[in-house]
Write a structure and sequence with these properties.
alpha/beta; Aspartate Aminotransferase, domain 2; Aspartate Aminotransferase, domain 1; 2 domains; seven-stranded mixed β-sheet; three-stranded antiparallel β-sheet; globular; binds pyridoxal-5'-phosphate
């Protein structure tokens, strides 16, 4: 093989973004400052939201949104097993008990029809995950949340640019948390943000993200700020740097183009792989939506493929094609088995997905030829003529 390795994801960073990072480094102000303020203003406009708070990661955002709920021991938070571990980890870190609802077999999103039976008098919040950028069925979810007085923290790590019934995720509802990790639809290196329309929630997150201080450092040392600050509560150190925001300022305006290309590539996979018995392709929900195509994740059919998911990934790697696993069901990790008594059989749809799912290469900088090479490698591996 002389072809170079095709990764499953790679960020697209423009020359203008690189120049902005250099300008930031040369400006004398590299941590939270004017570029973060500007990026937050762009995010507020993008989401038509009064509050968009940048952070060091989406994990930090989930952590702070949950911390602001001040959970009592035994309080329950409902989420999905088909997610990144951070969704459940942050529930546990803030003193909550994760309660899981199985996913739909084809969209891998939380099956909202099963949500009502998971609600108990101890339930405080629901954390849906918009898997791969496909929106969860939010109308019935918010109807249940309203009926029971529950908060909703949407893990929107995959979902910047996703739309549900004509409305952008982040432009309505309670709290949304977005990720700017390099694999996600836009990146700031590491980074994330929380979007909300709740003034009190925004105030608490602003306080908790920077030591519980009543004023941020750049204000204190600026011309107009006072030298003093007060500690209102012991907080965390989750602020975004201006170096990161410098990237974000150029990534957000590029998002529409990124999603357009991701959508084209997803459509090409759909068409190319449609009649392959080795794959079951991701399903589409009946309600109007725009998929942000963070991931393209079919399920392998091991009998017809002649191999399981892990053997497929190894075979692709040997053919210089990267793939990923998003995700193995979180309830089956040792910590969650041991501390919450979860076991195989609890969430059969999630377990079926967990065993068979694979992320194929998908990123805006990928050419048609790159994709054709990935598909040819699969055909070779499966022995298709
Ligand atoms: C990536 C991801 C996170 C965490 O995002 P970070 O910015 O890396 O902390 C949380 N939830 C889901 C579903 C993710 O994919």
């Amino acid at each position: 093989m002389t072809d170079e390795f095709l990764p499953f994801s790679r960020p697209t960073i423009s020359r203008a973004a690189i120049d902005e990072v250099v300008a930031c480094l040369e400006s004398g102000w590299i941590t939270t400052g004017p570029r973060v303020k500007k990026f937050e203003a762009l995010l507020k406009t993008y989401f038509s939201a009064p509050h968009a708070l940048t952070l060091s990661s989406a994990t930090a955002g989930l952590h702070l949104a949950l911390a602001a709920l001040e959970l009592k021991p035994g309080d329950e938070v409902i989420t999905t097993p088909m997610t990144f571990a951070a969704t459940l980890n942050t529930i546990v870190l803030t003193g909550g008990k994760p309660v899981l609802v199985d996913v739909e077999p084809d969209t891998y999103n939380m099956d909202v029809a099963r949500l009502a039976q998971a609600i108990t008098p101890r339930t405080r919040a629901i954390m849906p995950v918009h898997f791969a950028g496909l929106p969860v069925d939010l109308d019935p979810l918010y109807a249940l949340a309203d009926k029971h007085g529950l908060r909703v923290i949407e893990d929107a790590a995959h979902a910047i640019g996703t739309e549900y019934k004509g409305r952008r995720i982040g432009a309505f509802g309670d709290i949304q948390v977005f990720s700017f990790h390099p694999n996600k639809n836009i990146t700031t290196g590491e980074g994330g943000c929380v979007v909300t329309r709740d003034d009190k929630m925004a105030e608490q997150i602003a306080l908790l993200r920077f030591h519980g201080m009543d004023r941020e450092a750049w204000n204190r040392f600026g011309k107009t700020g006072s030298q003093h600050y007060e500690i209102i509560t012991p907080g965390y150190k989750y602020n975004m740097m201006d170096i990161q925001a410098a990237l974000g300022l150029h990534q957000l305006p590029a998002l529409e183009g990124f999603i357009r290309r991701r959508t084209e590539l997803a459509q090409r996979y759909r068409e190319s792989l449609a009649d392959w018995p080795q794959w079951t392709l991701p399903g589409t929900p009946p309600y109007p939506h725009r998929h942000a195509w963070h991931l393209f994740t079919p399920l392998i059919n091991p009998e017809t493929a002649g191999m399981d998911r892990d053997a497929f990934m190894q075979g692709m790697k040997e053919r210089n094609i990267g793939t990923g696993i998003h995700y193995r069901a979180v309830h089956l990790y040792p910590y969650y088995r041991e501390h919450f008594g979860f076991k195989r059989g609890d969430f059969p749809n999630a377990e079926n997905v967990s065993d068979r799912i694979v992320s194929l290469p998908l990123f805006p900088g990928m050419s048609d030829a790159d994709q054709d090479r990935a598909i040819a490698a699969m055909a070779d591996l499966f022995g298709r003529k």
